[in-house]
Amino acid sequence: MYSEIILDYYRNPRNFGTIAKPDAEAHEVNPLCGDEVTVQLKIKGGKVEEIKFSGKGCAISQAATSMPCEHIEGK
After folding, report:
1. What is the SS3 assignment for 58?
2. What is the pLDDT of residues 11-40, one digit of tens each?
3. pLDDT at site 53
4. Which residues of 2-21 are buried (b: 16+ CB within 10 A; e: fewer)?
5. One-character DSSP codes across 35-50
6. What pTM did the predictor assign?
7. How sure is the predictor about 2, in pLDDT bands with cuts at 50, 70 and 90?
8. What does the mean pLDDT of the chain come to?
9. Which residues contact 27 (CB under 8 A, 6 or more apart)?
10. For residue 53, what are the β-bridge partners?
11. Burial class (CB in 10 A: 0-12, 13-18, 19+), 64
12. Alpha carbon distances (Å) from 37 to 7, 33, 59
């Protein structure tokens, strides 16, 4: 049902965790299915120095958060 790429990101999420003192944070909950995600950023010199996410939910929600986090860091 799910592609191997999505399952890989779900089983081995990139940037999963928390930042002790983030510069920015967003928390979202999908009331229909219960998926929950928090994203935290550490910004330095106008760039994302560090990005982490935490939460719980289906493979798609977790992979869909992990994938952009991996690409946003350093930008």
Report:
1. coil
2. 999 999 999 999 999 999 999 999 999 999
3. 97
4. eeeebeebbeebbbeeebee
5. -EEEEEEEEETTEEEE
6. 0.86
7. low
8. 93
9. 36, 37, 38
10. 16, 39
11. middle
12. 17, 12, 12
